[in-house]
Amino acid sequence: xxxxxxxxxxxxxxxxxxxxxxxxxRLLPYLLLIPSLxxxxxxxxxxxxxxxxxxxYATDSMGRAGTYVGxxxxxxxxxxxxxxxxxxxxxxxxTSIGIGTFAVALxxxxxxxxxxxxxxxxxxxxxxxxxxxxxPMASIFSYVFSKYGILNAILGTNKLWLSGTTLFPVIVFIVxxxxxxxxFIYLLVGFRNVPHELIECAELDGVTPLKxxxxxxxxxxxxxxxxxxxxxxxxxxxxxxxIKILVxxxxxxxxxxxxxxxxYAFVRERYETGCIYSxxxxxxxxxxxxxxxxxxxxxxxxx
Amino acid sequence: xxxxxxxNKQRDTLSVVIKCFxxxxxxxxxxxxxxxxxxxxxxxxxxxxxxxxxxTSSFDNYRTLIQSLPVFGYLRTSLIDCVLxxxxxxxxxxxxxxxxxxxxxxxxxxxxxxxxxxxxxxxxVITITNFLTVRRLGLLNTxxxxxxxxxxxxxxxxxxxxxxxxxxxxxxxxxxxxxxxxMKYLFQFVMPLAxxxxxxxxxxxxxxEYNAYLWPILVxxxxxxxxxxxxINQLIRPDLLPTYGKLLAFAVISLVxxxxxxVIGEDYLISGMTEGSVKG
Lengths: 303, 280
Prior knowledge:
Largest interface: A-B, 94 and 94 residues
Largest sheet of chain B: none
Order of helices and strands of chain A: HHEEHHHHHHHHHHHH
Strand order of the largest sheet of chain A: 1-2
Distance between the termini of chain A: 52 Å
Number of domains of chain A: 2
Mean pLDDT of chain A: 87
Radius of gyration of chain B: 24 Å
CATH topology of the largest domain in chain A: MetI-like fold
Structural class of chain A: mainly alpha
Oligomer: heterodimer
Shape of chain A: globular
């Protein structure tokens, strides 16, 4: 016997009316999205697709697609020694900077955990490089490391730091310095999440500082730690200004994929080759992001 | 028992002093740039002693720099570009965020996913084709060309939406029922409340746009449209022997604004960076 049917009817009416009201088509929400989505379509989605398309054509100096060549240029680029060297350089450069920046930021943020009167002053100083424009900082460093620069003067040497074997470590050092601001801030947020009582208990129990760091701070800040490691690798993929100003892009000893991309497209006007380098760079960024996503899900310790 | 010769307070003060010293060491490249920008070129080819620095320091580098290059013109271009990007991006992102936060509509999830995908495409990857588009549209050497690629910002849209979602929806419905239009509600009620997030976005966008290098060197081809970052290239052309005094003076001039902006807006910048970016 189904009696309740009539009993529920009056309740169902307002619900029905409500959902009808919601279903009424409204134009406004779409109109509000038009400006942002138009810009994104024109300057993110279209160029991406265009980049893919151009990589299958021979382009003219205006960047127009000429004859269709299919995968011929892809094959030529991917099998070239130049590309392999560039890929190797990029990976070496990004790993070095990723690890180095992380280490510097870790040290600085660990120093700043305790909130004291005046701690704002050094926090600001530690984070400051992230606000500094790369081009003028590169200029200052080009003086510091030049033949007549301050470093040679202090060391009493006469070395060209920005060439030969010292070039790579010097550039990595500079970029590490310039990039570590955001990492410092994220790690500091992570470390300050650690409950105060926990640290006090550990200190009462006589836990050594090293153990405190490895067993308490790092695990609790693990979301930030993983985020920062990947952030730095991804930032390094995009670093260009320092290399352009301090090393140069033509026949550069530090020819990362981005430098190659710039050279092919904007110096030699080989746009299709530039596009291929772009897409490889994009693929690398995507892969690293996937790994990051995987780690975030698997390895991160949440409280 | 370990003996403490210092009181807790003294130890804290000491640690602050030491850390400030480390901080100063950390940003010492800035001081190198600043101090040596006052020293004449002739003295820069060897390490100037303090005596030399004290005796020879002058504004000569700055004077010759300003006479040879329109530095303040470059600065003006940079600032106009920044203001343009910040204004348009804040308005565009506010509108879109309002739509995502206050309405349910068909395709909302799809469109939001589209925004997220757009956020993930690195700007460098699409630089070539964006350049081709901008050139075809005849926007080289224009403010619009410099700024247009950043008129939409996934980060700002996301940040605004995050904030709008904390506002009670009932209040929105009540306002609409009372005859307040959506636009009026957004501009007179929501946006004034969102001033802290707008400040966060403004400082983030400012630093990014002011420091931009790759895009401006492509778009600003004529000297009258050089931004400050492009202008500095004039002094580091490989065919010229670098005149470090002038170069350092240029660097100092171009760094004044971002340093001030950072010191003033640090809190907003940090809250903008940490909100919604790390799950912690």
